[in-house]
Amino acid sequence: MQLAMSSDTDNLILEHLKRFQGELAEARERDREILARLSHIELGIARIARDEASNYAEIVEDRRVIDRLRERLERIERRLELS
Predict the structure, then answer these.
(1) Are 77 and 83 in contact (CB under 8 A)?
(2) 44-73 pLDDT, tens per residue?
(3) Among 12, 16, 36, 14, CA closest to 24
(4) What does pTM read for this prediction?
(5) N or C: which end of the chain has fewer CB within 10 A?
(6) What is residue 81's three-state secondary structure?
(7) Tens digits of per-residue pLDDT, 2-15?
(8) 83 SS3 class
């Protein structure tokens, strides 16, 4: 009788351990998926930041061109005594 109970207990423990291993494997798979998705989000944010920096550089360059045109226009107006 003692041997049968011990065997039943061992089988029960083994079943629990197998279930825990299965749940752990599922959790690890979820973690891998979450990390992959997080990586994609980080790449997207990096692309947005790069595009924003590029747009800002274009705005700065446009302002520089406008300032130079304004200076030229003011110089022309002074020479022609229009202002």
Answers:
(1) yes
(2) 999 999 999 999 999 999 999 999 999 999
(3) 16
(4) 0.61
(5) N
(6) coil
(7) 555 678 888 899 99
(8) coil
Cα→Cα distances 18→11, 13, 21, 24, Å: 10, 9, 5, 10
5-30 burial by CB neighbour count: b if 16+ within 10 A, else e? eeeeeeeeeeeeeeeeeeeeeeeeee
DSSP designation for 80 = T
| Rounded-to-integer distance, Cα 83 and Cα 76, Å | 10
Report residue 71 as tokens. 């200076």
CA–CA dist 61, 56 (Å, integer)? 9
The mean pLDDT of 27-50, rounded to a whole number, is: 98
